[in-house]
Amino acid sequence: MDRTQGQTEQHEQPTGGSAPAAPTAAATPAAAGPARVVSLTAGEFALTVNPVDGSEIEPLRPGTEPARPAKRDAAARAARAAAARPPVLPGPAVPARPLLEREEERERLVRLLGRGRSVRLTGPSGSGRSALLDAVADRCAGLAPDGVVRLSGYGHQQPGELLHALYATVYEAERQRPGRAELLARVREIGAVVLLDDLEMGGPALDELMRATPECAYLLAATPDTRAPSDDSHIEEVFLAGLGKADCLELLEAGVGRPLTDEETAWAGDLRFASEGLPLRFVQAAALLRQRDELNHSDEDDEEEEPGVFEERPRDAVHVPLPTLAEGAAPAELLASRVSESARAALRIACALGGELPHHAHLPALVGDTHADTAVAELLACGLLTPVGTRYRLASGVARQLEEVGYGDTASEEARTAARHYAWWTGHASVVPARVAAEADAVLAALAGADVVAAVLLARTAAPAFAASLHWEAWERVLRSGAEAARKAGEVAEQAYFHHELGVLALCEERLDRARAELETSIGLRGALADKRGTVAGRRALALVVDRETAGAAVSPPLRLEAPAAPAAAPEAVTVATPAAPAPKTPPGPKAAVPAASEAPTAKVAPVAPGARVAPVVPVSAEAVTRMTPVVPVTARSETPTTLSEVFEDAFPLDPKPAPPAAPRPATAPAPAARGRRRLVLLAGAGALTVVALGTVVSLALSSSDTAPPAQEPAVSATPAVTESATTAVNSGNDPAPEPPVSAPPAETPEPGQSAAPTPGRSPARTPSRRPSPTPPKSPPATSVSQPPTTSAEPSPTPTETAAPSPTATTQTGTGTAVPPATDR
User: Fold this and answer.
1) Nearest 10 degrees: CA dihedral of 684, 687, 693, 694?
2) pTM here?
């Protein structure tokens, strides 16, 4: 960059290099290396800004925590305030503008600030709010222990960055960005008069700013369309109106440098009525009159001189009339047509950048004229520019008026040129991060209007500078714009870098969810590129996110190993470790004994008094299990359950109806064998279903025989009767036992393994299923003696023909037929 454009040697030397011990090596770009590595302290982390592979973050090591920062003294505050003012422009000095008709407002503001009250100064754009703040700052220098702090609220919708700017102004903390807790603790100790110009926030955000700094008195300058403070903020309101007619004429004469004519006085009166007395309109009107005087050659000396050969003005003077009232109310087009070509080129660049004018040192490279830096002073004298913090931008309404006459037609080309220039400038080793931060608004505007290739390059070089300068709001904005541009351009490596930086930034600001999402995206992209170094850096940062999430998560164990200190309404259960003993083997058979509750290995649950500690239980064996019981009982119970089955019965009752309260049982009484009872019931039901199924099968077999029985007489079955229950005999329970007939042969001795008769309560070993012999077509009268079927040990009994009894003597049960025994005659 050209050193003849007002830049001192001090601004050209880097101060953010990674090798402070060898400043001579960093003086030249070749020795500085391709990257500028800066180490910062961000809250509880040590941040290393690495423009090559991405920033590296790690916890602060013990003993490396920064000391408590000290406040700046009066001399340091004065030097910082001078550096915060707009730079001195090359060329002729711009005359100071008088502060007219503001004595009453100034005295009121000073009086309210001296009492510790905060004031909101409301006025339209161009009403002279910044000039009034300068006058108040001179009167309030000794009111507060920390002096007067000037801040710019332009572009800030949240109080976070304003609090960091206030902290950096009052405290000497180089390369330190405190965490939120430490920041709030430090700014609470600041006692200063804060002059905040161009305020853009209100409501809860403004209330948060006021609560964070209770020892500060604020003078807030805002426009009427800015959101108003809340009702309980207790902020005084002062409205700044326009100037009177006499003050407008005085301001106009001071700008022109001569007395006004009658025609000009009448024109100024009409202009005051149209513009409501805004001082900016009369500054622009004074510029119009000066340009008119230059065109009319009103100077007598100039008229006496003979026009030269190389002069651009014509020899014959042309009379230029006064501007019309419309031109005086919107003078941007007329003023821009009478300035130099370099100034008009600067206006085109400002329109392309959304009203932001680059620093005057950049204009020679952007415009292509070595003397283009003088255009800023020319435009400022015409009232087309207004100071905003340490920079200049187009005055209110100027950008719209210029775009209507074609100054915005080449906006895309101008933005692309500015983006390429800033990409080279921000990546140069001689440019310190502080200078890049001062040009943040112009850089972001160029980034928004450039093409994707230029935007990716500019974001890649500007992001590390914003991070090193602690201007993290601009850092986040440039990272998001760069990630979007890299996605559109298909630059996967650059997109991974931007996501990694966004994750590190979110981790520094304790936004863990956002940090995890950004870092996981970066790790995935770098894994696809096989970037090992970048992947390792991302995984280290992600491990820190996991650690912060684990440390900040609320611990909620499912069980309480210790009783709470507060008294509870009901005793709570505790967890006791008992040895895992094998369950006792149950002997086979339905009548096996059930072990008592005192013998079964169950979890011992005892009520614990509030505040008492539970002594650990020494396990009996090397292998122990933990029985978990609910802390709060599910159902109300008169006594504590002693077995695990009772605990599950309470949680999942078998009977939906509420059971009556059980009587207290003695300690030595065995527990009921609920498990054995349920097993017997299930076995009995299964047996009943089996018998019913077998009876159904037998009935179907009988009904499907080849020879049908006679229709007039009932059929007699020769097989033993089948009943519904497996525990009933062939005869019913009310009939007497059958007596064997006289002529019946003696029963044979059953062989081992066979049963002579079914035992009550047990199923028969085998059921005969042989088909009976067919009955004769005609049976003799009921005079013969019929014998009941005898149970034999043979597997297949021989059926015996019998006479059919009377219908009243036959009893049918289920699907089988029971035949009563015949009596002897």
Assistant:
1) -140
2) 0.63
